[in-house]
Amino acid sequence: FHMKALKTRKILIIFLFASCFLSGCQKKEMAAIPSSPQEAIELTMGSLKNLDITAFNQYTDNYVETHYNVLGGVEVEYRTFNELLQYQSRRGKRYQSAYQLSQKITQNLTWEIEDVRENHDTAEIDMHITNADIGKALGRYEVKIMEDVLEGSGFGLAQLMTDMSELFSSKETLISIIDGLDDEDIVSFDVTVLAYQENGQWKIHLSPEFINAFSGNMYDDDYSDEIEQRMTELEKQYENKLDDWAENFEEKFENGMNLDK
Questions:
Q1: For residue 46, what are the CA distances in angstroms to 101, 106, 211?
Q2: Residues 206, 80: contact at Cβ < 8 Å?
Q3: What is the pTM of this model?
Q4: What DSSP state is assigned to residue 107?
Q5: H/E element holding 129?
Q6: Which residues pair with 191 in a beta bridge?
Q7: pLDDT tens digits for 89-120?
């Protein structure tokens, strides 16, 4: 019995080690507790750059709330990295693709702290944040989807579903477009970030402006004039495609009716 128990424990240790290696699990250590607003923002940006989401959540108010549905399911809402934080298994394809995309979004992230104004248990932090223009990459990706739809048969809905499925699962096309950004495809933002004390620890508030800045303008609704112009052209082509499809359908329908007479 003793030898069997030791063998079972050894197998369990090997399994746990392998699981941690494959899933990238982190040491069970508490992240450093910031003692000042400046330290809090530095630790936040460092954990963001390294994609240490556990530490990032500790330093910020990323957690919003937990939702319970009627079937007993649970979904936790976060301000950012929401998709990355939903997957229970880090070995799954969807988690890996979400992680790779997050890496691409943060790999060129840089920042400067220009001023810190502390007032009792709150502080304002002026920052200059620079990143790759992820918003431009998203615009190019949307253009590609529209081009694919135009090239597809019929309404192009089958191709649209294929593109959406690829974005949901592997994200390879979007990642490739981000990799194709030029050195000059960068954006910079001057933002003021709010810090506050909670339970004796300084934390950082993730405002929409702050999230958009460190995400490379990902959440800006406006594209560049070049992309907007191309999308307008594609929308017009798609309208023409629908008109042609309707005319062909009407012609075939009328020909079919004449054959029945």
A1: 18, 11, 15
A2: yes
A3: 0.75
A4: T
A5: strand 122-132
A6: 127
A7: 566 777 888 889 999 999 999 999 999 999 99
Poorest-pLDDT segment among 85-89, 134-138, 223-227, 244-248: 85-89
CA dihedral 233, 238, 243, 246 (to 10 degrees): 180
49-74 burial, b at 16+ Cβ within 10 Å, e below that, comes to bebbbebbbbbbbbeeeeeeeeeeee
Q: How many CB atoms sit inside 10 A of residue 223's CB?
A: 18
Instruction: Collapse the DSSP code of 215 into the 3-class scheme (helix H, G, I; strand E, B; otherwise coil) and give the result.
Output: coil
Q: For every residue of 137-206, which 3-state class applies, written as one string? A: HHHHHHHHHHHHHHHCCCCCHHHHHHHHHHHHHCCHHHHHHHHCCCCCCEEEEEEEEEEEEECCEEEECC
Tokens at 150, concatenated: 């135009």
- Count of alpha carbons within 13 Å of 153, Cβ hemisphere only? 0
CA distances from 164 to 91, 109, 167 (A): 22, 27, 5
The closest of 82, 109, 95, 86 to 178, measured between CA atoms, is 109
Token pair in block for residue 126:
């002026």
Residue 236 has pLDDT above 60, yes or no: yes
pLDDT (0 to 100) of residue 147: 85
What is the per-residue pLDDT across 127-179, written as a single tens digit (0 to 9) for each? Answer: 999 999 999 999 998 888 888 877 766 555 666 677 566 655 558 888 999 99
> What is the gyration radius of the CA atoms in the chain, in angstroms?
25
